[in-house]
Amino acid sequence: MGSTTALEHPFDLATDLTPAGEGRFLGRTSPGYSNMVGPFGGITAATMLRAVLDDPRCSGSPLSITVNYAGPVADGEFTIDADPVRTNNTTQHWVVTMSQHDAVVTTATVVCALRRDTWSDTEITPPAVPAPEAVEAAVTPEFPAWLGNYEMRFVEGGVPFEADSDGSPTSTTTLWVRDTPARTLDHLSLTAMCDIFFPRVMLRLGRMVPAGTVSFTVYFHTDAGQFPSDPTPYVLATARGQHFGNGFFDQSAQLWTADGTPLATSHQVVYFKG
Amino acid sequence: MGSTTALEHPFDLATDLTPAGEGRFLGRTSPGYSNMVGPFGGITAATMLRAVLDDPRCSGSPLSITVNYAGPVADGEFTIDADPVRTNNTTQHWVVTMSQHDAVVTTATVVCALRRDTWSDTEITPPAVPAPEAVEAAVTPEFPAWLGNYEMRFVEGGVPFEADSDGSPTSTTTLWVRDTPARTLDHLSLTAMCDIFFPRVMLRLGRMVPAGTVSFTVYFHTDAGQFPSDPTPYVLATARGQHFGNGFFDQSAQLWTADGTPLATSHQVVYFKG
C-alpha cells in the first residue's frame, strides 16, 4: 500500500494504511494475522491506533485506546475514519470507526497526550519469573495464523487447547512474548500484544469454546521516547479473568519490560459460549 | 425536564434528559452534582448511559461503557447525540457524544448485550471488611457538592484532603457506599459509583493536587433484573492506582453487593499535576 513509512516487518505491513482524504484511511486485512474468524483483535486495534498516528493532525503520543469489536471484519479492504473531536493543551480526543461496505465493524476512542515529568511510582509488581532464556518457547498451533507472529514462552497458563484437560482453577497466564521476526517496541506493537492472551474461559474450562472480545482498553504507561531500544525485546505479559457469567467475562492484564518497568495495563470484556 | 420516567430522587433528576429528535437528548448540569470544576465525572458518565437507555432503539442492557472526558463541561445545558452504529443478535454498539455550543465535551462508547445463563465463576474476591453498620459514616467536605449525594463509610484510605499528611504508601481505598437519600441500584447509579473514588494521587501525596479523569470504563457484571431489591443497598467499593508517572495514573476498581456478588469492575486513567 502507499504509506512511505512502512517497514518490511509483517506487523508494519499488516497495519499499513493509505490516506484517502482528511481523516480517512484505506487498509486491508492480512492473512498472516488472521484469527479463528476475521483478523486477530490485536492487529485490528493496532490498525485503529495507526490511523490516528498517521494523521497529520495527531498531537502527542497515545495515552489510552478503547476498541469495540462491533461486528465481524471480513477478509479484504476496510475504511477507517478518524476524527479528532477535541484538542486541548495536554490531551487530544479521537473517535475512530472502521467500516466495510458502509457497515461499521469496529469503533474506537483514542486519547493522545503530551506527557511531562512528574512524581512517579508503580504500585503493582511484575510476577516473579525466570529469565526468558530459561523458559521453553511454546510450539503454538499453526491455526489461528496470528500466533505465528509471536514467540511465546509460558511461565504459567499455557495454550489451553493443545489437549483436552479438566481446566484450571484460575485463569492466570504469564508469559514472555516478543514479535517474531523481532521488532522494536512501540505503541502499535504494544497494543497488539495486550490482546495476545487466549480467551480466559478456555483456560478455565480446558477446552475451546466460541469466544470473542467485545471491548478492549489499553492504558499506555510509556511515552514515545521511552520504549526499550533493544531490537529484540521480550515483554513480560500477565493476565487473568475477574468475573465470568451470563455469557461474558472480563480480563485485566499487565505488560512489563524485561527490567520491570510497566509498559501498559489493559482490560477487556469478552463474549463466550459455554 | 420532560421525561415521564423521572423520579424525584436527585440522581434521577440530575440525569434526566429530554428527547429532541432521533438519537438526540437535551440535558442540564445539576449544582448538587458539581465537582471542583464542572460536574462530577460519575454523573456525566451516567447521563451518557441514560441517553442510550432512554433511546427506544436500545436493545439489551449495559455490558460496558467507556467515557472520555474531552473538555470541561460548563454549568448549564448540553446536547447528547447517541448513535447505535451496529446492532447484532447479542450485542449493540453505541457511539455517544455530549456537546455544548457545538464543541464536543465528552465522548462515550456503550455496548448493550442480551445475556443468557452460562457457566459462571468469580476469581477476584471482595476485601474482608466489617459490616457497614460497624464502620463510621464519614463526614465529607461540603465542597465538592457531589459528595453530599453519597453516604461513605471508609474501611481503608479515607478522604485524603481533610488535613495535610505525609501521604500513604499505597493508594487503596475500600468503603461502603450508598446513595443518600437511598435509591435502589441500577446500571445508572452503579456507573456513577464506579467514579466515586478521590484521585488516587491525592492519597499517595497526602494533599490536593489538580487531577481529572481522562478515560473511564465500566464492565457491568449484573443484568437488569439482577440488582439487589434492597431499597437502601450498601455497595462495597475498592480501588487502587497501578502506575503513576508522566502526569497520569491508572486506577482499577471493583464494586460488590453486600453479600459478595460482583456488580462491576471499572478502570480509569487520570491526569494529575504534582
TrEMBL record, chains A, B:
It holds the Pfam family 4HBT_3. InterPro entries: ACOT8-like_C, Acyl-CoA_hotdog, HotDog_dom_sf, Sec_Metab_Biosynth-Assoc, TesB_ACOT8-like_N. Residues 134-271 form the Acyl-CoA thioesterase-like C-terminal domain. Residues 32-112 form the Acyl-CoA thioesterase-like N-terminal HotDog domain. This is Thioesterase family protein.
